[in-house]
Specification:
Blueprint: E1 3-7, E2 14-20, E3 24-27, H1 30-41, H2 49-52, E4 57-61, E5 63-64, E6 67-69, E7 73-78, H3 111-118, H4 124-130, H5 135-149, E8 155-163, E9 166-167, H6 175-182, H7 192-207, E10 214-221, H8 237-246, E11 251-256, E12 274-276, E13 294-296, E14 304-305, E15 308-309, E16 314-320, E17 331-333, E18 340-342, H9 353-376, H10 381-396
Antiparallel strand pairs: 1-2, 2-7, 3-6, 4-7, 5-6, 8-9, 8-10, 10-16, 11-16, 12-13, 14-15, 17-18
Helix pairs in contact: 1-5, 1-9, 5-9, 8-9
Length: about 400
């Protein structure tokens, strides 16, 4: 089973991820992982930390001569800011300094609940690991998993749908076109008019010491029908995706396909009608059209039915709340004096929704890789390809 673990604090020496269950023989390009790490650092509204860090992954095990070995893959990313935090984040008890303690929890963050749960008197013991800095590791893992999916024509793409109340208009564009244009945008949108309005909104919030959230969309093309299962609740693909996306810092909502809009419509306006055309059995292009002959006239379900992928594009939208650290802080209480106080201020972003879209890509890519290997699992790329091609032949002749 493909799985991973991450470790590391926001201002510690490094971030680490270990990926277990990786089959042998998959080509891995470190430059592609570093490119996704760079994409995560971009976006209008990012803070000063992005001027310090240059996130690059080091492969510490599991790959030789550009191919996976079948053993665990260890990834490491250096925190360049560590040099400024060697005393504050030291492992040595001699460096303890109670004067450095953070004692004013931020509304909306893990601060207060974390210190209550773990009985800490210094919020930094919570906020360092709760920080979205951990998404660097998750982006690296997901980028790695994109390369596990790539040989099978599966592509995962993320972009912004809205920031604040400003929505992008993408009518008439294919998913590939939306993604390509968004990847060139400082707010990761394909709509230039919306881009200008979003930048102006971010600037306004920055002047006022406020923050902004947004909604991003992740699309996966080339998925075969049958990833996931209807048989058990925790095998359902859409459920696994929702859980994984909700685990990203600051995420408060996930919908697939029409999502909440389905609740406002009648069944005749929602469900995707099924048709059959033998000409669709032929694979075409990249990502490939999975050759079943069966297809749907719409994709309101967003590519999943009954907890399984149905062969249509997977479409997931994710809502990110505004970041909890405000330069004009909200009201809080000092943990020691119990008196009213302004919440602590940590160096932060005004809006990180464009970066979150890249993290969302990574999270979706990992879950899809897990489901894909569960379905077509083997110890090597050759064995998995054989299993996959056999399945395509099976559904083609259904």
């Amino acid at each position: 089973m493909l799985r991973y673990f991450t470790a590391g604090e926001s201002h510690g020496p490094c971030l680490t991820a270990i990926i277990d269950g990786v089959p042998a023989g998959f080509p891995i390009d470190v430059k592609k992982i570093n490119h996704d790490l760079w994409r995560r650092q971009q976006g209008y509204g990012r803070g000063g930390r992005m001027l310090i860090e240059k996130d690059e992954v080091q492969i510490r095990s599991g790959i030789r001569w550009g191919e996976t070995l079948g053993s665990p893959v260890a990834l490491g990313i250096e925190n360049r800011d560590w040099k400024n935090w060697t005393k504050k984040m030291s492992v040595s008890p001699e460096d303890r300094d109670e004067a450095l303690a953070v004692t004013k929890p931020r509304p909306g963050h893990a601060d207060l609940t974390g210190v209550l749960k773990y009985r800490h008197s210094d919020i930094r013991n919570i906020l360092e690991r709760a920080s979205a800095r951990d998404t660097v590791s998750r982006t690296a893992v997901g980028s790695f998993c994109k390369q596990l999916l790539a040989p099978f024509g599966i592509k995962v793409m993320g972009y912004i749908r809205s920031i604040g109340k400003v929505e992008a208009k993408n009518e008439g564009l294919t998913y590939e076109e939306i993604f390509a244009r968004s990847d060139e945008s400082p707010v990761r949108v394909a709509d230039k008019e919306a881009e200008d309005k979003m930048i102006a909104l971010i600037e306004d919030c920055k002047k006022k010491g406020d923050t902004l959230g947004g909604i991003f969309e992740v699309v996966a093309l080339g998925l075969p029908p049958g990833l996931g299962s209807h048989a058990q609740w925790d095998d359902k693909l859409d459920g696994r995706l929702a859980r994984a996306l909700m685990s990203i810092q600051a995420i408060k909502g996930v919908e697939i396909g029409l999502g909440f809009e389905m609740a406002r419509r009648r069944g005749s306006e929602v469900h995707d009608e099924i048709f059959f055309d033998p000409d669709k059995m032929v694979s075409q292009g990249t990502p490939r059209i999975v050759p079943t002959g069966f297809y749907r006239g719409s994709n309101n379900s967003g590519g999943t039915e009954g907890g399984m992928s149905n062969g249509a594009p997977l479409v997931v939208r994710v809502a990110m709340k505004p970041i909890s650290t405000l330069m004009s802080p909200l009201q809080s209480v000092d943990l020691r004096s119990k008196r009213p106080a302004d919440a602590s201020v940590e160096r932060s972003d005004v809006c990180s929704a464009p970066a979150a879209a890249v993290v969302g890509e990574a999270v979706v890519a990992f879950e899809l890789a897990v489901a894909f290997l569960e379905k077509f699992g083997g110890d090597s790329l050759h064995e998995i390809t054989r299993n996959y091609e056999g399945y395509l032949g099976q559904i083609k002749n259904f």
